[in-house]
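REVIEWER CHECKLIST
Item 1: Sequence provided? yes
Item 2: Single chain? yes
Item 3: Sequence as submitted:
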Amino acid sequence: MKNIAIFASGSGTNFQAIADAIREEKLSAVIKLLVCDRPGAYSIERAIKQCIPTFVFSAKEYASKEEYEIEILQKLKELEIDYIVLAGYMRLIGPTLLKSYEGRIINIHPSLLPAFPGKDAIGQALNANVKESGVTIHFVDEGMDTGPIIAQQSVPLSEVETIESIQTKIHQIEHQLYPQVLQRLFTTSQEDDR
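Item 4: Structure as written out by the authors:
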């Protein structure tokens, strides 16, 4: 059983999908902490409802990224966190966390990387008029959505898509794929630990 910390910045639909998969015994993990950089984000409410501890911060209250990442790292160590799972966390992970959790930070991104990295990937796909988009799950490195890809799944797009319709399609895939990939990853890593 892996101890995970989920990092989120928004409403937390992927946080919820992971929590549901754990409850349904489809994912062998324990969410020990939600880290959120936006006080007032709905993901915080989701965590509180499930009695999951939260660490909520505002980056502008710190002198540097290193300063708040040191504080986060302390919490992760206290809770013996094995993996950091990013679920709509809108900040680049800095060297402090990257060094301590190398190869153990996973992100989900709403495009078929390397296409459309960074913010508003769905809007980028819509503007580019592509015939398909999708979901990528990847390890995190120092770049913006540049880490090694673990899994991808595509979504066909019609000519009448909107941001909302693409978002709905992407979320349906994310909520299934993320827990499945995490389960595979955690199972493999447990076998490696033996």
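Item 5: Key structural point noted by reviewer: The helical segments are 13-23, 42-49, 65-78, 95-100, 121-128, 163-193.
Item 6: Recommendation: ____
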